Amino acid sequence: MDKISRKNKFLIITALFIVIIAGIFIIEFKKDNRTGSESLRIIFESGRNVPNNAKYPQKYIELYTMNPDGSNVKRITNNLYWEHKPQVSPDGQKILLTIHFSPENVSETDPGWEIATMNMDGTNLTKLTDNDYLDTDARWNSDGTKIVYVSDSNHRTRDDLKNGLLPQYDIYLMNPDGTGKTRLTFGEPGEVNADPCFSSEGNIYYVHSEGYSNAFDLWRMHGDGSEKSLVFAHSDLIKAINDPFFSYTCNRIIFEGKISEGSGRQMYNLFTVDSTGTNLTRITYNDGESDIWPSFSPDGTYIVYFTYEWDADGGHTQKIRVSKSDGSGEREISTFPWESFPSWFEK
What we know:
This protein is mainly beta. About 10% of the residues lie in helices and about 40% in strands.
């Protein structure tokens, strides 16, 4: 009996030791694979509830939130609008978005897009613009007191598009309630000023092309539109710059750079530069997918973006990924093939 008892004690102690070691391993694994603070969430748009054989699938694109590891997905909207490019206000109370109320076979540059806000639960949808042309790409400043966005100064309607009238994309500023709209750039027909974002100092970074060339450079201006200057020009490596995002904590700008095009497929990778346009660093590399719409986490240690991948049948998928700010530790967190335009916010 004494021998059996000692043997049982040994087995119990061994089992407890294995459990403790396994628990430590699991904890450390979670530490190594978690993304940033537990207070962070990601807001994004998804077509996960598009009905089979829907004639206009854009009508069923809705807003959701999730944890940075892809867990705890929560639906925000449930309507027949297309809510696009959501951005949560710095105080975490409002969602700023581009919205189309009749999204029947529309593209991102068609007339009819408006800027709007809503509460975090999807209620109190309020239009900040209301016209027949394009308003898009809205972002908050650091304290939520101003909104920068893009509007077609040529005021093109659908008929104008059919008649070949060129766009004239310019950058505007307004208050959070839609008042005080102010034009900051004054392009010629065919020129593009787009993709604006605020820096921590209140400057606005944006992309600009002279003529309808799609060869976008990165520019900067003061918050009132003065002192416009070139920050970073396109090159043989980076043929165009799109969607810059400024990190308030590390004072760096992340953007997608077009590295190749052909057969209707434009390939983009992610790059960063300092606020002065120096110290170019490549974050992602060409793996057959385009990397789109990047943003830094509030503490600057992680990035979120989505990938655009073509399939053999001519279709594509869009999936959200998270990585450390240097591109390491990349993980796909989408569980559905059509999810895009993610951005961070704090609970």
